[in-house]
């Protein structure tokens, strides 16, 4: 059968009254899970997985994909309005999304986020439909050498994200790496830095770290100034005169190259198992910042940052489905849950899946496309409602957010250890804010540190302690070379700025 007839068959599979109803429910619930701090796409799928037991395989995967897409996109709501990433995939959205809110441009920030979330998902899904088998052949060649080099390359982004004070940025990155080593060692299964505590055996959950650093840290900072009665946290924007998604066609067209580049980054990161949207949005944001003529304006309210983050993290969805469906390898925790769902419904991922269950596979693709359209309209009509959240008094809003953070942290492992961790990282986030230490390198170190360490050790175990294969592997050598170039570029930046200033003065 041709690809066209398979795609048509996929749409026929999901465009039933039941399928449409499940997609509307899945997207709506997913948006709520994405927007609420401490909840995630993984949690949404985990909670609804038992609901799918009695469903047909096509209906079950339709519901779960709608939840996935809704939750990843929903994270932008709290990231922009409250500077709290609803999911790890929305961390970079905070950097420019919330400053836009502070300028009274909440509708524009949300509109940009919604539209480019939609485009990122559509872009990656269309590529997934036509290129999945071919892309998987490349991804399967990646081993510990390649993953180590990719992690090192991504860690060099700390240098470029530490504008203003590289020492503070590198310190934050090292601290993030240190905290990520706490728990059970993934290679030898030994406990590290747990000090005999059973609660630390599994380390710190990424969501607890994210919510604590951004949400609780912001709440503590806001509480410090709560006695200043005349102080306004944000400017309440008026929705009068705002048309469509709140931004102009000129602004949209100016972001097309940024969106395409970020979509390709998100797709590429999604294909690589074990990395995911938590890295892709940060990497896309950094590339957008470094490629801009005025990088110093990032973090102060540029739609470029929102576009890069939201396009990349949603493009990661399609990328993550490539190794899942073609090789049976989950790219992150969410796709690991989806792997369980496929197995539960007797759908064995692999090359044969496209032959034996083509209608279900292309039904998944069709569900992703239709759910993206539903997500676009739901969030479009919700723009006015979302913006009204800003009118809620701070003394009401902040305690409610704190309660949600505590509930979300508790639900991670159903004990108080993650709640304590969440509050602890909140204090760290507040300290970072007080001493003007960037939190982005901390997050980057926390996410990528274990990836670099584990693959470095695996590579050395494979070669009996020799580092040579890390340099002789073509893909690994390319990424290490790029990493070295980025470090040299960052190290010589002050010198280049000094020379530029001298030329301007003369």
Structure description:
The protein contains 23 helices and 2 strands. By secondary structure, the protein is mostly helical. The longest helix is centred in the N-terminal third of the chain and has 34 residues, at 106-139. The chain is globular and about 65 Å long. The protein starts with a helix and ends with a helix.
Gist of the model:
With 506 residues, the chain is mostly helical.
Low-confidence stretches: 230-239
- Portion of residues in beta strands equals under 5%
Elements, N to C (H/E): HHHHHHHHHEEHHHHHHHHHHHHHH
Report the strand count: 2
Q: Give the count of helical stretches.
A: 23
Mean pLDDT: 80
Number of structural units classed as domains: 1
How far apart the termini lie comes to: 70 Å
Main pleated sheet: 2 strands, antiparallel
Radius of gyration, taken over Cα atoms and rounded to an integer in Å: 22 Å
The global form is globular
Helix percent band: over 70%
Tell me the structural class: mainly alpha
Sequence of strands across the biggest β-sheet? 1-2
For this entry, give a set of tags.
506 residues, mainly alpha, two-stranded antiparallel ribbon, 23 helices
Outline the secondary-structure elements:
Layout: H1 3-14, H2 17-35, H3 41-48, H4 57-82, H5 91-102, H6 106-139, H7 144-155, H8 157-161, H9 166-180, E1 183-184, E2 191-192, H10 206-224, H11 249-254, H12 256-271, H13 277-291, H14 303-327, H15 333-344, H16 353-356, H17 358-388, H18 394-413, H19 417-434, H20 440-462, H21 468-472, H22 474-491, H23 493-505
Antiparallel strand pairs: 1-2
Helix pairs in contact: 1-17, 2-4, 2-17, 3-4, 3-15, 4-5, 4-6, 4-14, 4-15, 4-17, 5-6, 5-14, 6-12, 6-14, 6-17, 7-20, 7-22, 9-20, 10-18, 10-19, 12-13, 12-14, 13-14, 14-15, 18-19
């Amino acid at each position: 059968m041709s690809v066209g007839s398979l795609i048509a068959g996929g749409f026929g599979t999901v465009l039933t009254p039941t399928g449409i109803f499940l997609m509307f429910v899945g997207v709506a619930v997913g948006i709520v899970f994405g927007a609420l701090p401490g909840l995630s796409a993984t949690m949404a799928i985990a909670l609804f997985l038992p609901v799918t037991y009695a469903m047909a395989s096509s209906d079950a995967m339709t519901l779960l994909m709608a939840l996935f897409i809704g939750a990843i996109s929903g994270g932008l709501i709290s990231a922009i309005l409250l500077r709290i990433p609803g999911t790890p995939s929305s961390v970079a959205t905070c950097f420019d999304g919330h400053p836009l809110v502070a300028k009274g441009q909440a509708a524009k920030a949300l509109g940009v986020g919604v539209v480019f979330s939609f485009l990122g998902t559509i872009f990656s899904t269309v590529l997934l439909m036509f290129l999945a088998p071919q892309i998987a052949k490349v991804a399967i060649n990646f081993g510990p050498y390649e993953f180590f080099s990719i992690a090192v390359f991504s860690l060099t982004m700390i240098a470029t994200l530490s504008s203003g004070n590289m020492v503070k940025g590198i310190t934050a990155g090292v601290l993030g790496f240190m905290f990520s080593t706490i728990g059970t060692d993934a290679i030898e299964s030994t406990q590290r830095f747990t000090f005999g505590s059973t609660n630390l055996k599994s380390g710190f959950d990424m969501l607890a770290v994210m919510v604590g650093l951004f949400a609780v840290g912001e709440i503590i900072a806001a509480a410090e100034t709560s006695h200043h009665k005349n102080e306004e946290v944000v400017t309440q924007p008026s929705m009068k005169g705002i048309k469509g998604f709140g931004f102009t066609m000129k602004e949209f067209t100016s972001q097309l190259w940024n969106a395409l580049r970020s979509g390709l980054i998100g797709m590429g990161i999604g294909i690589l198992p074990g990395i995911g949207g938590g890295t892709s949005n940060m990497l896309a944001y950094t590339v957008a910042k470094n490629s801009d003529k005025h990088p110093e304006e990032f973090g102060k309210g540029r739609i470029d940052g929102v576009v890069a983050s939201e396009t990349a993290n949603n493009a990661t969805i399609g990328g993550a489905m490539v190794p899942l469906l073609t090789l049976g390898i989950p790219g992150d925790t969410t796709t690991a849950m989806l792997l369980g769902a496929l197995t539960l419904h007797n759908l064995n991922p692999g090359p044969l899946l496209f032959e034996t269950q083509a209608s279900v596979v292309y039904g998944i693709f069709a569900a992703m496309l239709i759910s993206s359209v539903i997500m676009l309209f739901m969030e479009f009509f919700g723009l006015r409602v979302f913006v009204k959240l800003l009118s809620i008094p701070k003394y009401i809003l902040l305690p409610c957010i704190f309660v949600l953070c505590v509930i979300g942290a508790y639900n991670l492992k159903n004990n108080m250890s993650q709640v304590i961790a969440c509050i602890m990282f909140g204090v760290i986030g507040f300290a970072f804010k007080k001493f003007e230490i960037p939190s982005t390198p901390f997050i980057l170190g926390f996410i990528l540190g274990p990836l670099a360490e584990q693959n470095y050790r695996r590579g050395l175990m494979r070669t009996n302690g020799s580092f040579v294969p890390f340099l002789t592997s073509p893909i690994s050598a390319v990424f290490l070379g790029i990493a070295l170039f980025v470090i040299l570029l960052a190290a010589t930046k002050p010198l280049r700025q000094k020379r530029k200033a001298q030329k301007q003065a003369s």
